[in-house]
C-alpha cells in the first residue's frame, strides 16, 4: 500500500511561517520526505490569498478545459490511429478536472483531502489508471487495454468525486444493490 501523510511544524496564521512536510510511505516504511514550502510560493499553497472571484474563474476555466479535452479525446477515438490521441486527451482532461479543485481549496489542502482514508483507495486507483492508460497506449501498444483503463479512470474519478458529497456513496451502493437483488 502507498500512503501519503503530511506533518505540520510551526502553526502560524500566515503560510510563510508554516512548514509542511510530505512523507511518502510504502507500508510503514518512509520512502520519501520533503519540505513542501520551498517547492511552492505561499500564494500557490494557500488558495485564500487569491480573491474568491479569481479562484472561481480559474476553477471554471480548468474544469471546462478538462471536459473539453475529454470530449475531444472521445471524438478522436474514431479516427484512424486515434486511440493514442484519445488516451492522451482523455487523461489530460481528467487531470485538468482534478486539478481544477486546487483553485477552490488550494493544492496542499487538495492533496491532504485526496489521501484521507475515505478517499485513499479511489485516489490510488484513479492515479494508477491515469498512468496505466498512457503506458498501455505508448509502451505496451495495447489499444484495447488503454480503453479499459480509460473506463476505469472514469469509474474511479466518479467514485472519488462523489466522496465529497455527504452520503452519496451510500446512496449509489444502495441503488446498485437494489438493482441487483
Commentary on this structure:
- This protein has a 3-stranded antiparallel sheet, with no helix packed on it.
- By secondary structure, it is mainly α.
- It contains 8 helices and 3 strands.
- A hairpin with a 2-residue loop joins strand 2 (about 20-25) and strand 3 (about 30-35).
- The protein is globular, with a radius of gyration of 18 Å.
- The relative contact order is 0.10.
- Keywords: Membrane, Protein transport, Transmembrane, Transmembrane helix, Transport.
- This is Vesicle transport protein.
Task: Detail the topology: elements first, then pairings.
Blueprint: E1 2-8, E2 20-26, E3 29-35, H1 42-45, H2 52-76, H3 82-100, H4 102-105, H5 107-114, H6 120-138, H7 143-162, H8 168-180
Number of E-type strands:
3
Count the DSSP helices: 8
Helical fraction equals 55-70%
Average pLDDT for all residues: 77
What is the N-to-C succession of helices and strands? EEEHHHHHHHH
Largest sheet: 3 strands, antiparallel
Catalogue the unreliable spans: 1-20, 22-27, 31-41
Distance between the termini: 33 Å
> Quick one: overall form?
globular
User: In what range is the share of β-strand residues?
Assistant: 5-15%
The whole-angstrom Rg is 18 Å
The helix-and-strand class reads: mainly alpha
Strand order of the largest sheet: 1-2-3
Amino acid at each position: 500500500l502507498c500512503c501519503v501523510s503530511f506533518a505540520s511544524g510551526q502553526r502560524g496564521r500566515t503560510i510563510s511561517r508554516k512548514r509542511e512536510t510530505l512523507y511518502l510511505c510504502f507500508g510503514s516504511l518512509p520512502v520519501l520526505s520533503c519540505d513542501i514550502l520551498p517547492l511552492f510560493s505561499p500564494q500557490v499553497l494557500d488558495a485564500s490569498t487569491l480573491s474568491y472571484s479569481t479562484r472561481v474563474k480559474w476553477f471554471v476555466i480548468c474544469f471546462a478545459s478538462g471536459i473539453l479535452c475529454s470530449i475531444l479525446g472521445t471524438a478522436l477515438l474514431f479516427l484512424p490511429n486515434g486511440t493514442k490521441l484519445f488516451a492522451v486527451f482523455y487523461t489530460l482532461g481528467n487531470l485538468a478536472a482534478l486539478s481544477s479543485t486546487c483553485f477552490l481549496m488550494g493544492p496542499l489542502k487538495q492533496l491532504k483531502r485526496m489521501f484521507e482514508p475515505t478517499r485513499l483507495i479511489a485516489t490510488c486507483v484513479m492515479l494508477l489508471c491515469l498512468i496505466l492508460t498512457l503506458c498501455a497506449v505508448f509502451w505496451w501498444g495495447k489499444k484495447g487495454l488503454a480503453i479499459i483503463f480509460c473506463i476505469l479512470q472514469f469509474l474511479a474519478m466518479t467514485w472519488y468525486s462523489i466522496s465529497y458529497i455527504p452520503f452519496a456513496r451510500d446512496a449509489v451502493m444502495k441503488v446498485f444493490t437494489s438493482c441487483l437483488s
